[in-house]
User: What shape does this take?
Amino acid sequence: MTLRQLITQSNYKKVFNYIRVAYYKGASRDEIIEADIGFRAAWDKLSSLSKNSDRANFLIFISEIYDDLASEYFIDVSLRDPVSDSIFSMDFSCWSEIIDLNIEDVVGLQNNELLSHILWQISFWGFSEGKSIKKKEQLAELWKKFKKEFKKDFDDIS
Assistant: This one.
């Protein structure tokens, strides 16, 4: 199943209820309303994207990881390249590149819960693709400055 198919087959309110329970514990009513509006906008944008298969060899990979610091398991959403068997972060991905990717769920979640974790991951930096890309660019610029400032330290590593 692709992300597009999952969205088409899911009910927004049920998905948002999973998001609210998993990620907004203790949030105020206003925070929940703001999140609901934001996630709905993201849902609508994803639903309206044109077909794209540029990264067809990647999969949206859902797994469960143990956090030693928190002493608990959490659901991880990432991209997996099955050819190299490599895992990549998904939070900075262009939505148009992931909408038609197949989903590999090794946890066995129900569709509404599965989609809640995917939506949380892709909207981590904001409720639009543009905000995620802008944050990615900001972090890349900070990394360049950091590398320049600590060039000698990086040279010593090489």
